[in-house]
Amino acid sequence: MFKSKFSKKRNSTSSEPLTCSDSKIPTISSPTEKPKKKRKASVGSVFKGIGEALTFEKEKTAEEKAKEEQENLMVLQLFKQNLECFEKSSEPVLVCESLTGYKRMNKAKITKRDLVFAMCGEPVYKGTIKIDCWSTLKMPIDSYSTKQKRKCLIPLDIEKDGYCIECDESSIEQKTALKNMTIVDFESEFPFYKEFFYRNPNVKHYLSKEENVICSIQRFKEVSRCILRNNKGVIRCLIGKEESEKPQCYDKFFNEPKNVICLDNTPELDDALFEMENKSIITHFKFGVIYVKPNQNDENKIFTTSAKDCSPAFWKFLDLIGNKIELNGWTGYRGGLDVKSGSTGTHSYISHTHNFEIMFHVSPLIPLLQDDGQGLERKRHVGNDVVVLIFKEQSNQNDTFDPRILTSHFNSIFIVVTPDKPTIDNIHYKVTVCAKAEINSFPPYLNETGTYFHDDIFRDFILRKLINGERTAMFSPTFRLNYKKTIKEEIKNINEQFYKQDLFAVLK
């Protein structure tokens, strides 16, 4: 039986409510930290017989039932304290038709993984209020407006060449809850397998080498928690009693039941699936930063601009969104920069926000090679960044930045920031965002005018815009294809290592 970490920290009589934004929610261990091996699964990796394969858990004792009831009351208390998180519930990616009446969270309201984990206990799947905080939820999508846009920091004719522009709040058709998301698809970084499946003897794994599928199931009395891995990706879902009795026959999991085997949760297989999840969790980002002088529209000249030619307003802006660090001996995330010999410069800028670490590839801080009129070393780093921050200084309103002058095919999103003046006393900025058309719009959206003050609100806006831009880009066809190739190969490797097809292992 799942024992909520919340239940260990608080009791149901506590007078202090626990909410989505409550800092007193118990801290979950780091997703990269492997839990201690407290329990071992049975020695046999292959179940001998269907009856044994479908035996998931023993009958609960009276004491266990009492604890379960206590946890049920506590989870329901959490639900009542966080009703706003369940308003306008999001739809699950994979729906089991036999399960109805479940309340799910609004994807835009998911900001605390500890709250989600606390509400993922067994009792929430039954009773008068049935709560599903387990299933993967669909990503809401807003579209770019087709209305005529006002003049901005990017030439408007770029839309004809497969780009979309956001210059103010009217640029986006804001019809979903996407605008309310702090971090896009935030729960994808939660270590669900580690927290609920790892070293759990009640977990069974269904493998199909032929279909390249691995389905992990933790079965309860009325419903089962599942993690489905196939060539399309990784999806969490709930299934009912009928589906959990023969998951190999559930057509949303497998096409051919006879090729499916059921394996116990052995330490070796458990570790392999733990590592697969661990590698998919993102804890850091790297973004390019380019300084563009007034009337500068040549790529080589932009990438060969020296640090001393950058304006005081540029460095003031970088000091707002990040912190300058010395690269030599740097032990944090380095984003591909050299922290030993100084080949990529002596200093750079880093930042931290929403538990993510950021390394900026600041073009003027990366040394130029001798007789290099193209800035090749700078292009090597900035050219491999999905999102690029452009600090553009204007000579007049017609002096815009055109992303088409950059030859990198990898650069996909451009956030253009222009200061009101190039001096150290600048306190105002204009912002325009441009992205390739295959990338959906992403929050936070620009305000009514697209102008901002030099303050912490603007800092948070820029950092979240950068992060959500890259996270949204990963859903685009180009980047999604690379993701699917990686997942396919990882599942294939695990299947080849653990799939054992014999007369007893095959479920018929």
UniProtKB/TrEMBL annotation:
Ranges for domain Rap-GAP come to 273-494
Note down the stretches annotated as region Disordered: 1-43
In terms of Pfam families, this protein maps to: Rap_GAP
* The keyword Protein biosynthesis appears for this protein: no
Gene Ontology cellular component? cytoplasm
The record's section on SUPFAM superfamilies has: Rap/Ran-GAP
List the keywords (alphabetical).
GTPase activation
* Bias-annotated ranges (Polar residues): 12-32
Kindly give the InterPro entries that the UniProt entry links to this protein.
Rap/Ran-GAP_sf (IPR035974), Rap/Ran_GAP_dom (IPR000331), Rap1_Ran_GAP (IPR050989)
Spell out the Gene3D superfamilies in the cross-references: Rap/Ran-GAP
Stated name of the protein: Rap-GAP domain-containing protein
Organism, by scientific name, is: Entamoeba histolytica (strain ATCC 30459 / HM-1:IMSS / ABRM)
